[in-house]
């Protein structure tokens, strides 16, 4: 038989279509407006929290569609956007700073479909929206951090040069250095004058002091760099979250806009984006008694720190190294199967760590985790008020001289180690940031434009179906079935891809592939018509029509696929979205237009031995 498919080919086509339809199905159920509650470091999600949430909602007469607790979070499904906003306001007030109360959109597909991995296709901000954050940077804290780092670097430089000094301290944005003698003052001036770009030296011979003064140009450059560094780090953190096509840009002097299209876990997004985390490595004070310090007699040059999990530790004020020198961090397990974080430093950090630990082998070294948490209040001068939380996460004995690669242990659970590694790997924000505005974003083109666009899409699709059905008759109906199946497969494949987001340019890519799928069927059907005109039998016309049109279809689609790959490789944002849907559409359209329609044609006409004519 000329036009015959073995059973396995029919089963393959049916299996592909069913799988595509299965994973496209969640898009029919839509999403519910929801509230997602997760705990900060000081909070905990448990049944008591769940009962408190239910009590608060009842007191405000807010009827949720459903409340569930899983994976350490509470998800509340609401019946409307107004109920969602009302629930967020009251819960954020009642639960306080120990919990993150975030807006969300929860997929409404059945549990059995979710268990199979079925999730609705994520839509971009220009279609469905996503999460919009407006963040404010505390520039005063940024300058304070830079001054502290400058003091530490100046002390290290003086020690390396063997210059004796009585003190190095902050003085406004400048650094004031007091030397032991006039000779030390001259040596320090020569050593530091050309070392630090953006600073000038001012010598006071009467008091043997030297001032490193920050120039106005360098002050302005530092402020700009603080914003730029925070933007870069936020981009890295968004990449860690796996969000497609994010928008992260500066707004004004000290604000940053972050838009996350199609994001699901908004609570985790707030936690990761808003966290300002870094490390400090300090030596443990072993010369003084911890109990004396706990009773209030803290020795000069040392400080008492809380230990994560309970207890306290007395540490030296001298900072060995800060987290600014960390270039990579990963979580893992030590030889005792305990969670650890592997740290990699830059060359400067490696040298500083090596010099500091050279003569301290056998001494304990503590890892201090520092985090700034917004209090939700403002200071008298209108700035954001942050609480600086410092805790010792690890104390380990130095077994050998350390360098650029080492590890810290005792960081808690594997999840704590993974979270800490993520924050350190993405970078430490140079200044604390506070989310001053959060909202879900509707279509940027407006609801009316979206409705008009969908109307145009549906109208165009229907016209194509009518044309194919009328012009090619029964074969046109076959093409229409393939065209509809192609759309289902595109949606199903995109729903399966983690992080894939459909945007307006992506919809344009889908429409283009619909036209290309029709072109493929038109080539095949016109070729069949030509074969019939040349006097071939209907069975021979079908076979030669598909065989001869295949090379032309393949050439056209492969060249377009190459263009799509190039667009994805060199493009950004909307261009990538267009390229992804175009590439997926090309592959699915070749399957439906060639293999899919051939299977239907073979099943409908190929088994007929005495076929006198075709409805084409």
Automatic annotation (TrEMBL):
Residues 2-103 form the SecD export protein N-terminal TM domain. It is found in: Cell membrane. The chain crosses the membrane at residues 453-472, 477-497, 503-525, 546-570, 582-605. Its main location: membrane. GO terms for biological process: intracellular protein transmembrane transport; protein targeting; protein transport by the Sec complex. Residues 308-431 form the SecDF P1 head subdomain domain. InterPro entries: Acrflvin-R, SecD, SecD-TM, SecD/SecF_arch_bac, SecD/SecF_CS, SecD_1st, SecD_SecF_C, SecD_SecF_C_bact. Residues 227-285 form the Protein translocase subunit SecDF P1 domain. It holds the Pfam family Sec_GG. It comes from the Bacteria. Residues 433-600 form the Protein export membrane protein SecD/SecF C-terminal domain. Forms a complex with SecF. Part of the essential Sec protein translocation apparatus which comprises SecA, SecYEG and auxiliary proteins SecDF-YajC and YidC. Belongs to the SecD/SecF family. SecD subfamily. Part of the Sec protein translocase complex. Interacts with the SecYEG preprotein conducting channel. SecDF uses the proton motive force (PMF) to complete protein translocation after the ATP-dependent function of SecA. PANTHER family: PROTEIN TRANSLOCASE SUBUNIT SECD, PROTEIN-EXPORT MEMBRANE PROTEIN SEC. This is Protein translocase subunit SecD. It comes from Aliidiomarina soli. The lineage of its organism: Bacteria, Pseudomonadati, Pseudomonadota, Gammaproteobacteria, Alteromonadales.
